[in-house]
Amino acid sequence: MARLRRWLRLLLLCSTLIVLYFVVPAEPHIPSSAVVARLVVCIVTLVLLAGLVVRQLRLQIDEGMDRRIDGLVVSVVAVVVTFALAFYVLAERSPTQVVGLETRLDSLYFTMTTLTTVGYGDIYASGQTARALVLVQMVFNVVFVAAAATLLSARIREAARERFAARRRSGPTDGTGPSSRPGPES
């Protein structure tokens, strides 16, 4: 029951972030005087996201297999949603910056294709600001998200090794294991 509750909580957190992404107001037309303020907010948000991912990575490393990966998963979803929102606002403010990006779903799709390095080419950065934002996302992905993915992969391999070793020690329980077969001395 605790495991189910944990997975439901993780699903709820990630779903909430995605729903918030689709409903948060993103006013594209702001006064010129507010551009600097928005830029500062973007930089602070990136720094906070980087701090969140680094904190989760440190917790994973320090506490090893005893630490759940929930916070790391939620932080990666938060990074994706933040970049998607940034691309959406940029495209709304200046539609020529990102060719093919017209909706929030397009923005989420573009962010994920950039994150996964698939890049189909149907949506692409054409303006200098959009290209700069893509570069920031790429660097962020390489430094933080790749580190998180590497750590998650290592955790999954370690858990699989531990399960295999535990099964090997306990042997089969159906009576067909090597200990239940008659040996040559029988």
CATH level 1 name? Mainly Alpha
Listing every helix as H and every strand as E from the N terminus to the C terminus, the arrangement reads HHHEHEH
Largest beta sheet, briefly? Answer: 2 strands, antiparallel
CATH architecture designation: Orthogonal Bundle
Shape category: elongated
Main sheet: strand order: 1-2
What is the mean pLDDT? 80
Written overview of the protein:
By secondary structure, the protein is mainly alpha-helical. It has a single domain (9-22, 34-168), classed as Helix Hairpins (Orthogonal Bundle), CATH 1.10.287. Helices cover 71% and strands 2% of the residues. The chain has helices at 2-23, 33-63, 70-93, 104-115, 128-170, and strands at residues 98-99, 124-125. Strands 1-2 form a two-stranded antiparallel ribbon. The longest helix has 43 residues, at 128-170. It is elongated.
SSE blueprint and pairings:
Layout: H1 2-23, H2 33-63, H3 70-93, E1 98-99, H4 104-115, E2 124-125, H5 128-170
Antiparallel strand pairs: 1-2
Short précis:
With 186 residues, this protein is mainly α. The chain is built from five helices and two strands; from the N terminus they run H-H-H-E-H-E-H.
